[in-house]
TrEMBL record:
Annotated ranges, domain Pyridine nucleotide-disulphide oxidoreductase dimerisation: 359-464
GO BP annotations listed: 2-oxoglutarate metabolic process
Disulfide bonds: 45-50
Name of the protein this chain belongs to: Dihydrolipoamide dehydrogenase
Source organism phylogeny: Bacteria, Bacillati, Actinomycetota, Actinomycetes, Streptosporangiales
Cofactor comment: Binds 1 FAD per subunit.
Signal peptide range in chain numbering: none
EC number: 1.8.1.4
Binding residue positions for FAD: 54, 114, 144-146, 313
Binding site for NAD(+): 181-188, 271
Record family assignment: Belongs to the class-I pyridine nucleotide-disulfide oxidoreductase family.
Cofactor: FAD
Length: 473
């Protein structure tokens, strides 16, 4: 006889931070929840991305801070100690704590590979070779994240390249590293590996600049910092062929200008794609070739009866952990409200932030912090824009942080509404400035009201006053 499915109100595919937030909110709403995870509960961010990368960067960032303060000298970084700190921060790649938290909520944790097997049904292949069939009364939520893209360069895949997982989990620092890409992972990890002792780090950047999704000056300032630290950046260069004759041996990268690079490891940081290709979407009429299109309540728009939801990287709106967690919170609340026949259209139950522009911090030195639209994006959207900039190093609070502080702030103003639609800060330690900008952009705080938000002296936040003065207030 066919196995009787295990019944739950909600089934969540993926127990990363996004899936965990769905679990939390749905449980709070009184629903029974099963969450399926084939790897580690806690997901990419906890073990192979956000957390370990920042653990690796912290010592490099602090060494930069110390070097700017007269009277202090930063000694050599103990790479082994940093790697040990990384291991501690990822709990030694042991997810028992995360599983324990899920259990404490009352949810059911299911270890295995979950795939849709028709409407509201999930089949899980368990590690022991068995199968569990789960059935959702109200919703299945896809929170399966994303995976790195490996460009179709001859020999690259066969050369066993590093991705974010291998570089954040490295057991030793390679002496020579080639990085393919010029985005966030490429910049952060090039700086980390060089700062932890690599003698050669070379970046191959397809375009003419780094960090193409933020204001151009941000990429220029990061490039300048990387070069000052000894990172070689080859703009407009592409790998045409990669060779690694012996597993674990030297990697030879043939470039499109006829030159070659030889390294111990090659890191591919060329973007990510939603993990939707092998989760059974074809069983419900979707092809799984890309992100799942959703409405602002995170419900899939192409699925009859509205039982499928997708949050985080799986819906392609913003590949950022904090944005996925935000989507997950409102998604869990919406599902609970709909299951209980309660109001499901409260302001907190619809995604507004993605349309305004997600906040992001790039943890290089200098840090890059941005929210909302760039000036170019705002103009392309037809907004009557005026942009102003200010050198953060001229603010007394920044001047006191040490000799040679370099930073810049930019505000993009919708002149018709007199509100900010984009803000960018670049400079050491500017991450803590970003949430004020996020509030201003998200809430539509007018410039006239911001004028009365008085920054403390002497702090770097005084740059807010200088931006408003530059605008003409």
């Amino acid at each position: 006889m066919p196995e009787t499915p295990e019944q739950f109100d909600v089934i969540v595919l993926g127990a990363g931070p996004v899936g965990e937030n769905v679990v939390d909110r749905a449980q709070r709403g009184g629903l029974s929840v099963a969450v399926v995870e084939r790897e580690l509960a806690g997901g990419e961010c906890s073990y192979w991305a956000c957390v370990p990368s920042k653990a690796l960067l912290r010592s490099v960032d602090l060494a930069g801070e110390v070097s700017r303060v007269p009277g202090l000298t930063a000694g050599p970084i103990d790479a082994d100690a940093v790697l040990g700190w990384r291991d501690y921060m990822v709990s030694g790649y042991d997810d028992s704590g995360q599983v324990g938290w899920i259990d404490s909520t009352g949810a059911t944790f299911v270890r295995g590979t979950g795939r849709l097997a028709g409407p509201r049904t999930v089949e899980v292949s368990t590690p022991g070779g068995g199968t569990r069939t789960l059935r959702a009364e109200h919703a299945v939520v896809v929170a399966t994240g994303s995976v790195p893209v490996i460009p179709p360069v001859p020999g690259l895949a066969e050369a066993e390249p590093w991705t974010n997982r291998e570089v954040t989990g490295m057991k030793r620092v390679p002496d020579r590293l080639v990085v393919i890409g010029g985005g966030v992972v490429a910049c952060e990890m090039a700086q980390a590996v060089r700062g932890l002792g690599a003698s050669e780090v070379t970046m191959l950047v397809r375009g003419g600049g780094l960090l193409g999704r933020v204001e151009p000056f941000a990429g220029e300032m990061v490039a300048e910092s990387l070069r000052e630290r000894g990172v070689t950046i080859l703009m407009g260069r592409n790998a045409e062929r990669v060779e690694r004759p012996e597993p674990g041996g030297e990697v030879t990268v043939h470039l499109d200008d006829g030159t070659t690079l030889v390294a111990d490891e090659i890191l591919v940081a060329a973007g990510r794609r939603a993990t939707t290709a092998d989760i059974g979407l074809e069983t419900i009429g979707l092809d799984g070739s890309g992100p799942i299109r959703v409405d602002d309540s995170m419900r899939a728009t192409a699925v009859p009866e509205g039982w499928l939801y997708a949050v985080g990287d799986a819906n392609g709106r913003a590949l950022l952990t904090h944005m996925g967690k935000y989507q997950a919170r409102l998604c869990g609340d919406v599902i609970a409200a709909r299951a209980r026949g309660k109001q499901d259209d409260l302001p907190s139950m619809r995604d507004r932030a993605d349309a305004l522009g997600a906040p992001q911090v790039i943890f290089t030195d200098p840090q890059v912090c941005a929210v909302g639209r760039t000036e170019a994006q705002a103009r392309a959207d037809g907004i009557n824009v005026r942009a102003v900039e200010y050198e953060i190093g001229n603010v007394s609070g920044a001047y006191l942080l040490g000799d040679g502080y370099k930073g810049r702030a930019k505000a993009v103003v919708d002149q018709d509404r007199r509100v900010l639609v984009g803000v960018t800060f670049v400079g050491p330690g500017t991450a803590e400035l970003l949430h004020a900008a996020t509030i201003a952009v998200t809430a539509g705080v007018t410039l006239d009201d911001l004028w009365h938000a008085v920054p403390s002296f002497p702090t770097v936040s005084e740059v807010w006053l200088r931006l408003l003065e530059a605008y003409g207030l």
